[in-house]
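Hey forum,

I'm writing up a methods section and want to include a predicted complex as supplementary material. The small molecule is coenzyme A. I've pasted the protein sequence and the SMILES. Can someone with a working setup run it? I'll credit the forum in the acknowledgements.
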Amino acid sequence: MDSKNISPACLDFQTPTRTEAERFFRFRTPTDLDGRSVHRLISRCPPLDANSVYANLLQCLHFSGTSILAETGDGQLAAFISGYVLPENPDTLFIWQVAVDPVHRGKGVALSMLDALLDRTIPAGVRYLETTISPENGPSRTLFQKLFSRRKAPFSKRPLFGRETHFGGGHDDEVLYRGGPFSAVGP
Ligand SMILES: CC(C)(COP(=O)(O)OP(=O)(O)OC[C@H]1O[C@@H](n2cnc3c(N)ncnc32)[C@H](O)[C@@H]1OP(=O)(O)O)[C@@H](O)C(=O)NCCC(=O)NCCS
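Reply by user p_vandermeer:
Happy to help. Structure tokens for the complex are below, copy them as they are.
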């Protein structure tokens, strides 16, 4: 399965209310027109790597089926999650970046969006979720551990990219977390 094979019916979703977050934010799939706003949002969300606008445009265009954004009632971008299905492992959704605008943090937005993304992709064959987390990023670690726990999914972790080996000392280690299998019924 790749992201463009997920049917549009799955994508134009309004998920049922699961958390308070969804009462205040509209979740939807990104389009190429969101690319520049996503780029600005990422730059407000250290320690995330800022990619080029072009890379964000491609995320929003080619990986829209496996990505999600949240916007406020007046259409401001509040949060974005980029993801894609592993080309060699079509049952695995890889989460690339999670970015919540600093003013909207602590309201359950990220957790709720991850849930919505799983609810959207599980019917299309996703059973596992992977992401990488730097050991220094406690909020990200607890976010994903909470997601796995809520979904009653076991998880494992192993080093993936090393500070020296892969980044030449210019970036923290990245540890791969893999959770699942997920059942079709969410929390
Ligand atoms: C990490 C981040 C995405 C969390 O977004 P958020 O919408 O505030 O997170 P949520 O409100 O959904 O939190 C869900 C759970 O994650 C954990 N969590 C989130 N922020 C946390 C923090 N600052 N410290 C500790 N735990 C945190 C908690 O377990 C929380 O559940 P709880 O509130 O019931 O304790 C956000 O802080 C962010 O964008 N950070 C900068 C970019 C980044 O590091 N992204 C993650 C790596 S890809």
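Some notes you might quote in the supplement: The domain at 3-131 is CATH 3.40.630.30 (Aminopeptidase). Residues 45, 47-48, 97-100, 105-111, 137-140, 142-143, 146 surround coenzyme A (CB under 6 Å).
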